[in-house]
Write a structure and sequence with these properties.
Helix content is 37%, strand content 16%. It is α/β, with parallel strands linked by helices and 180 residues long. Helix 1 packs parallel to helix 6.
């Protein structure tokens, strides 16, 4: 089974320092939906792993998060693809949970749900937390410059870490992954 892990905010949809709190604020990044459809057509199961501390901070509630995820899934389905699963950490960063990236709890949940191994699978993200979670779990990190990606890329360069492949956006990342 080919499986790919995508971060949500900053990879699929526009991010905000004030959190994405509603379906009105959930705005896909140009061409990200068609990129997900291309992954599906290439035989990938597409799963999302996302930190959503806005829940713990009471910026939005479970119903609002569910509405956002339903919107994402329906947009992708209307375009001809499918999101096979969305896994999220609802905790505040200070809670010390294992599911908050850079922890690997979400990736463990994905493996359990799909009875698969993620080692070597691509994990596309825009933050250092995404890169660290991918590395810690043996996934192949791929950085996009959307969202917080430019800042993450600069941090990696300043740290003399040139080992993470970087693409302009999810569309370019998918082209790199599927080779077209």
């Amino acid at each position: 089974m080919k499986i790919i892990v995508l971060d949500r905010d900053g990879v699929i949809n526009h991010d905000s320092d004030n959190y994405i709190k509603s379906v009105e604020e959930f705005i896909p990044i140009d061409h990200s939906i068609s990129a997900i459809v291309r992954l599906c057509n290439a035989g990938f199961k597409v799963v999302v792993a996302t930190n959503q501390s806005g829940l713990a901070r009471k910026c939005f509630d479970n119903d609002q998060l569910s509405e956002m995820h339903h919107l994402l899934c329906s947009i992708v389905e209307k375009a001809g693809g499918v999101i096979d699963g969305i896994f999220y950490c609802p905790h505040h960063p200070d809670e010390g949970c294992s599911c908050r990236k850079p922890g690997t709890g979400l990736l463990q949940q994905i493996e359990k749900e799909f009875a698969c191994k993620l080692q070597g699978c691509y994990f596309v993200g825009d933050s250092l937390k995404d890169i660290e979670a991918a590395r810690a779990f043996g996934c192949s990190p791929l950085l996009v410059r959307t969202g917080k990606g430019l800042l993450t890329e600069q941090f990696l360069r300043d740290s003399n870490d040139f080992s993470v492949p970087t693409c302009d956006d999810l569309t370019a990342a998918v082209s790199r992954i599927i080779g077209s």
